[in-house]
Amino acid sequence: YMDGGAIFNFTADVVPLMVEQILKKENMELDNIDLWVFHQANKYMINYLRKLIRIDKDKFYVYMEKVGNTVSSTIPIALCEAQKEGLLRGNVLLAGFGVGLSWGATVLRCK
């Protein structure tokens, strides 16, 4: 059984804090990130998170139209598509969350 409401609330609580912590660890601000790639859970959830964290829509990568939520593969698939579009440059923040109420983030430095 999956309690969608509880998972949404968990995500809304954990992801903004996770982003704040990784930016602090990396000595960065929101504006230092050139591209944001979150787990592609669903459009509603990730757009809610984008607005909650105040991420510029033009820097927030969403690739769900052709594949939907592929669970743990959403970030690698999105990265591959972003690379094809020439968007992987500068600082790219990856944020994963979900399965088993787990979460993690990192910043890639792309050339």
Describe what you observe in this structure.
With 111 residues, the chain is α/β, with parallel strands linked by helices. Helices cover 40% and strands 22% of the residues. It has 3 helices and 4 strands. The protein has a 4-stranded mixed sheet with strand order 2-1-3-4, with helices on both faces. β1, α2 (43-53) and β2 (60-61) form a beta-alpha-beta unit. α1 crosses α2 (43-53). The chain is globular, with a radius of gyration of 13 Å. The model has no long low-confidence stretch (mean pLDDT 92).
Any key phrases for this structure?
40% helix; alpha/beta
Oligomer status: single chain
Uncertain parts:
none
Query: Number of helix segments?
Result: 3
Alpha carbon gap, first and last residue: 43 Å
The 3D shape can be described as globular
Query: Helical amount among residues, as a percent range?
Result: 25-40%
C-alpha Rg (nearest Å): 13 Å
Strand order of the largest sheet: 2-1-3-4
Rounded mean pLDDT score: 92
